[in-house]
Design a protein that fits this description.
The protein is built from 41 helices and 27 strands. It is of the alpha/beta class. Strand 5 and strand 6 form a beta hairpin. The N and C termini lie far apart (77 Å). The model has no long low-confidence stretch (mean pLDDT 92).
Amino acid sequence: MITEAALTGALTAAVGPDAVRARAIDRLGMAHDASHFARTPRAVVTAASAADVARLFTASRATGVALTFRSGGTSLSGQAVTDGILVDTRRHFRAVEVLDDGARVRVGPGATVRAVNTRLARYGRMLGPDPASEVACTLGGVVANNSSGMACGTVANSYALLDSLELVLPSGTVLDTGRPGADDELRAREPDLWAGLARLRDRLRGDAAARRTIETLFSLKNTMGYGLNSFLDHDRPVDVLAHLIVGSEGTLAFVSSITMRTVPVLAHTRTGLLVFESLADANRALPELVASAPATIELLDATSLRVGQSDADADPRLRALTVDEHAALLVEYRGHTAAEADELGAAAAPLLARLPLHGPRELSGDPAAKAGLWKLRKGLYAKVAGARPSGTAALLEDIAVPVPDLLPTCEGLIGLFGKHGYDHAVIFGHAKDGNIHFMLTEELGAGSGRDRFGRFTDDMVDLVLAHGGTLKAEHGTGRMMTPFVRRQYGDDLYEVMLEIKRLCDPGGLLSPGVVLDDDPTAHLRDLKSAPQVEEEVDRCVECGFCEPVCPSRDLTTTPRQRIVLRRELERARAGGDAALVAALEEDYAYDGVDTCAVDGMCATACPVTINTGDLVRRLRAEGSGRAAGRGWAFAARHWGATTRTLGAALSVAKAVPAAAGPVSAAIRRVADPDNVPLWTRDLPGGGRRTPGGLTAGDADLVLFPSCTGAMFGPTGEGAAAAFVRLCRGGGLRVTVPDDLPKLCCGTPWKSKGLPAGAAAMAARVLPALWSATRGGRIPVVSDASSCTEGLALMIAGGPERFRGIEVVDVVAFTADRLLPGLTVAEPLPRMVVHPTCSATQLGLLDPLRRLAEAVATEVVVPDSWNCCGFAGDRGLLHPELTAAATAPQARELADVDADAYASCNRTCELGMSRATGHDYVHVLEVLADRARPVGVPGTGGE
């Protein structure tokens, strides 16, 4: 076996040293995906181009180490983990090019489904596949697994809508299957592959029994094995190859670019939850419901309904239901227009009227009602996974059977749950397609849990195949179902699949053990164990939904990896591996803790609402030295002096930049860089916290200006001054709390895991706000979204007597209270807006957009916007975090010519100004400069 040093050397020669990672923390952080398998790669490589991949294939052949591609890591069957070379394609390959006015789209395999659909939405189009993991799964993974979803069925999945692919074959050949003459090019450059595909095509077409089997199995959603229907559906070997790649799970070639046809967005819906007395009644209704042409029919069994009832936001009628053997169908009709949706709903009404329903039978066009019903359906995974015992894994499997066989299959599964002791398993899924998911929890690894899961799987395979079904409908064969591919297809068709693998990948370089593996116990090897660590860690299902919103995702680690590494650290401790423990702890300090923005965006995407920032704050508290703790405690007691000093220091640095930069850099070299900020020339001088124009007597509101206004002077007048000016123009009187310079929202201490300092500040702030608001009779308005969030948390966690204090963000207050009385005579032609992470969590995106649209004809919110990573002082302590987090937005905005750039938080303005070279200001500054009260001539808020 080649040594680690030699392997790293070969990979470095192929793609350069910056693209190769071989530390334990890098390899273990990528050892897990969303499945219940774990394999530790020997090296992790980041590829940036098709040429990189071709060179990696050469290195793989030369070293004899197999290679696996991974993008979003949301696969559920183990196809994205390896003990060889893991090639990370998520960091690059994110380009999205809309073609033919949205009718087609060309996409890199690293772009998420949500990112692509965001670009297509302005054309009224979307991708056909609609997987539930769209926030995190990439189009490369969707194509590789032939993933589908709730509505697309087999008519709008990747296979059906594929236009062309750019491929890198294991030989190193790069081929664009959409180029004129592509078939001739394949024949010339890969003659054995071309001839082999043509031979298999003719063989299968000439075998009546084989044709029948293929046509029967691929009339269902079917991701078992390779897509043999390609040989029946396409004539040219190059087209057969392109469609074989769909669903091949990265075992035949690398897809470097995908061109797909799109489908129209049907934005108008009529939705209803149809509850039946029994699963049998629900299944008997399916044929007529399918014939009524709904977009979706989602099945929920009795256990699913019971789980849904536990949600506080569940429909009262569902909560009132005494669930026995009930089942429900979530039905949705979709149209281009409201009239079309009404027509579909009206046509279905007679059918709904005669169905044996328990409860309401109407369809609703209300968006809130629809959202509630889909929350019920989509929240099942989170509810079951979140409630599982610590140390167990959540296993989500899927199958498909002919719709007439759905009832006996579901009944058989329920019987198997009872037989094997899976008491809390749930069944749900896409009933229209005969495709159901079932979820159970199990303690995997060696022992009785693994053995029980193996026995259950054997019985489940017998059941599904007895009903003419497929063992994988959407999630791919992966490693989970490889022992059963031969059984589903038979020996002859299995041999065809082996020949496909030999033709495309004769050296067996790509993901050995995925899709095809004759080991009858392959599905029970390399199973994850989940040692108990911390509350946040134990609830994590490692789905990866958090990763696209994490600002450090392209720099160090993601929330999932932070959690995975905590588990691996605990496993190393339990195994007595002191060297590994030391290595992980040393690297985790920076990769896992220092570069976490603790912005909470991960919780907005997590199905079990884990905020990894809470974990990191606790780790910071445990790791902070006594000196740092004393320093921040002193700052809390003398906050006014602290902010004035910092502001003055920045002003001095601004005046003598030639000395300030080198001095701060030198100090960081000998001190902990997580405690010593780096001064850069783009930082402003100090500012003024208290604005002018305040009311001395009774006021209508209390303004709480952010401390950052004192530390980082504004480009213009600043958010607080602009807000006061707007309020005065609207006849509102503004005051501030007494001793304002000594007050802070507490976020600096909270983000550093220093609860004592946060508590000391709260003890000063809450009484001051209570007094200023006259016992909660007038609102507190904060001029920075992060401070609004900090104050809200402070009040919620403080003494009961202060709970009556109302905190409103300046953006929401201005949009709701002031904007109706303002007019803008001359709007700006175009303004770029950067929403913030705290604004997202506070629900401020709509009011922020309303303010922007009031002052600019065109508002540009970058499709790639995300947390800027400045995160209070992170952008000063670790500017590389902000650089990595803002790079996608900076690239997107490079060609955008705007008249103003705005956000709603001072540090975020600094981060985006640094990233783009444009001066970002608070959106209120732009509004105050251009708005005037209705009926008053001139511009400005007064």
